[in-house]
Amino acid sequence: MSKMFAPTKIEGSGTMAGTVIGEAIKIEGSFTGSGDVTVKGMVVGSLNTDHDVIIETSAKVEADIVANNLSVAGEIKGNVTCRGCLTVKSTARIYGDVTAEVLAVESGATIQGRCTTGTKSTTDTTN
Amino acid sequence: MFFYIYDEHAVAPTQAAALARVEARIIELGINGRVEKLGPLRNIKSLLDLAIKQKVHTVVVVGSDETLLRTVNILATADLVIGYIPFAEQSLLAKLLGIPDTFEACNILSRRITKTVDLGKANQNYFLTTARCGSLTGLRIRCNDAYTVATLQPTGTARIDVLGDLTQLATTPTGIEAQPGQLRVEITTETTPSSWLKRTAVSDHTSVTAERVVIDHDVEPIPVTLDGVTTLKTPLTITLKSKQLRLIVGKDRLLH
Fold first, then answer.
1. N or C, where is chain A less crowded by C-beta within 10 Å?
2. Rounded to two decimals, what is the model's pTM?
3. Which of A27, A30, A50, A61 should we substitute to test contact with B (largest number of B Cβ atoms within 10 Å)?
């Protein structure tokens, strides 16, 4: 399938991910995903990918995350670096510093840490 | 030279007429060669050693998927081509390789279109499709020497795929596209219902790619079955050998 017709991956509940970490799974160590990653279970350590990451409601992540676009509905204890858009859903809880080009936060979400947005532009907005 | 191995499916009395047609067609096409039959005193390893010693260029398995998968395991490091004439009912490998029936298989052999495929290597054994773990209890899977995958539920299955489970051909008629250079770790766990009101078990799927996978155990060795034909015990180191084996395929193959 050409890129032009590729489905949107981050928005919505559909998982187009190459990597899926199920609810009953715990990953420990330096995890590097070769494609999009959907996390429903536990990740401890670090999570790196050049692609998109979805942290589902059931997920518990105790790791630093580096990703392209990131959608968070679960819990993250660690720093988040996002090259594209970081979408924080209402059920999300992030305990750590957040760096993203674009940040979208739903009402009810928890973020405890330093937020930096607009990383590609010269002016940073620090909360 | 062609080297034909007949297994018990091919020499079954019910297949005598079909086998006679195949043999006649093979002679017509000029691709006849040495024929050896498996038997109680002639196992596949001894026959394939004989084929290697005779420096044949093509080994043709005449029989079942199981015999072909055993052949793949043994001939993985040999420089020759493997062909297949399926004699088993509902042969998934025949479907994968684009071989519609036994008679057409002879024409496909004659055309000799080959496809080079990756093989998984588990310790010193090779496999084409999948390595299936017998249990999740105490199972530890370490990927790329970087991270460990552990299951919080003891019930379910774990597989390390090269081509993957061939039974998926029924649900994915477009074929199998293995991720080049990568093994795929597939874990399916089942959560038992918490109360009698919730009777259906919930299954949970995990899929991770890796170049090197080490399967180990906490308490006692876990059996791991390669291609459904060879059983080994943990600990196992599984790697992917790219472009390891040449198979003769038909034009309607589902192997991309």
1. N
2. 0.83
3. A27
